[in-house]
Description:
Layout: H1 12-25, H2 29-42, H3 62-80
Amino acid sequence: MTEFIRAAPVSPMDLIHTINGVMASITNEAVKSIVSFCMNKAGEKLSHYPAAKTHHHAYFAGLEYHIVRMLEIGEFICKQRSFLIRI
């Protein structure tokens, strides 16, 4: 399908693999439970949804792509600011 419509520059399979890896690394059980609930609720739709209607990752798998980019930014900021901790 991505040959015919605009899509994220990374495959949805790679994006969900990255998200699942970060989810597995969450050590705070309460946070992990909330994140797991949200991911399960979105299910397979997450791989299809855009992040927004226009401009902001408005393409196939845009929401997944946005989530991965935000995870990368969070990881970068935590490395820059030693008082921040990864959960």
